[in-house]
Specification:
Blueprint: H1 2-15, E1 33-41, E2 45-48, E3 53-56, E4 59-60, H2 71-85, E5 91-96, E6 107-113, E7 121-122, H3 123-129, E8 134-135, H4 142-158, E9 170-172, H5 176-180, E10 186-192, E11 195-199, E12 202-206, E13 216-219, H6 221-224, H7 234-237, E14 241-250, E15 254-256, E16 264-267
Parallel strand pairs: 3-6, 9-10, 13-15
Antiparallel strand pairs: 1-2, 1-5, 2-3, 4-8, 5-6, 6-7, 10-14, 11-12, 12-13, 14-15, 14-16
Helix pairs in contact: 3-4
């Protein structure tokens, strides 16, 4: 209970620090579109008054209890809805990440709300900073990726929002038994790579002695070719400590297949420790 109250107080303190989030990382995306928000839908999807549809970029949405998630995330999802609906009918600056909509007719985008001080409120980063979403970058703009992870780190350090639940712990790569129970779910895993090998163009990063049972990262060629040239060689990865995020699969032990280079990060060797959030 004490841990929960501490997390709640931390979240309340961060709630009114959100305006401090710098929007400079959005500048490489080019000129913003002007939009008025009509409504918010599930899955961080937004509908503008002119009918355009957007989804907040760089975020993994909360998983509601009716989707098999944690009931705690239902309450957090309501907070997200309140945060965004506060800006209904207001002018927003929209920075699109794509030119072509997805199959649902949505464009991934970063949104900035106008503020009295003129600095703007970066809504995507605000949700990360308050523990109301997890970072899931799909772009190769390093400054933007770094800003999203920095915003998330603020909430992780305070164990607030999604990070106050053991369900969203940082998993050590040798916790195979625990990860086996999360197959099909989003997870963040960290640990040292024991070996790396290439099979038919796919690189496998192995975290144990037995690839049939231990945690493995699979780097498919369409993703691997977007890495810097030296990172495409399996030998570059051997013995590095990394953090990776995505959906866990159960295939010869726990398996994760990043969808973008930004979803796997090199860490200092001492950083691969399991987090200890409140249950």
């Amino acid at each position: 209970m004490i841990r929960f109250l501490s997390a709640l107080l931390g979240w309340m303190a961060l709630a009114h620090m959100a305006n401090a989030q710098d929007i400079a990382p959005l500048k490489p995306l080019g000129p913003a579109l002007d939009m008025q928000l009509a409504r918010m839908e599930d899955g961080l999807a937004l509908v503008a008054k002119d009918g355009r549809r957007f989804v907040l970029a760089g975020l993994w949405p909360l998983r509601r209890s009716h989707e098999g998630g944690d009931i705690i995330e239902d309450g957090l999802a309501r907070m997200v809805k309140q945060r965004i609906e506060h800006h209904l009918d207001h002018r927003l600056q929209v920075y699109p990440m794509d030119q072509i909509p997805d199959r649902y007719g949505r464009i991934r985008a970063h949104l900035v709300a106008n503020t009295a001080d003129g600095k703007g409120l970066w809504i995507n980063a605000m949700l990360l900073q308050q523990g109301l979403a997890r970072a899931f970058p799909l772009n190769d703009i390093q400054m933007l990726t770094d800003a999203l992870y920095a915003a998330e780190a603020t909430a992780r350090a305070q164990n607030i929002g999604v990070w106050a639940s053991a369900r969203n712990a940082l998993y050590a790569a040798d916790d195979e038994a625990v990860m086996a129970q999360k197959a099909g779910e989003f997870a963040i895993v960290a640990g040292p790579i024991r070996s790396a090998t290439k099979v038919d163009g796919t690189v496998y990063l192995n975290f144990g002695d037995d690839w049939r049972t231990d945690f493995t990262i699979r780097l498919l060629w369409p993703i691997r070719r977007t890495f810097p040239k030296e990172h495409r060689d399996p030998s570059w990865w051997a013995h590095k400590t990394v953090e990776v995020r995505g959906v866990l699969e159960d295939f010869n032990g726990p398996l994760m297949t990043p969808l973008a280079p930004a979803q796997i990060r090199i860490l200092p060797a001492s950083s691969a420790q399991k987090s200890d959030p409140a249950p």
